[in-house]
């Protein structure tokens, strides 16, 4: 019974860690897109004015 609980705890730990890393990857992608869009918008706005 203890072994089953240990395996369950490890599965939850690694699953949560994997989900956290996957979430961080998507946050990084969204931040990169926003930085690029902001830079392009800033360069375009500076040329017009």
Commentary on this structure:
With 49 residues, the protein is mainly alpha-helical. It has a domain at 20-49. 96% of the residues lie in helices and 0% in strands. It has one helix and no strands. The protein has one helix spanning 2-48. The protein is rod-shaped, with a radius of gyration of 21 Å.
Report a brief summary of the structure.
The chain has 49 residues and is mostly helical. 96% of the residues lie in helices and 0% in strands.
Which helices and strands occur, and which strands form pairs?
Blueprint: H1 2-48
List keywords for this structure.
rod-shaped; 1 helix; mainly alpha; 0% strand; 49 residues
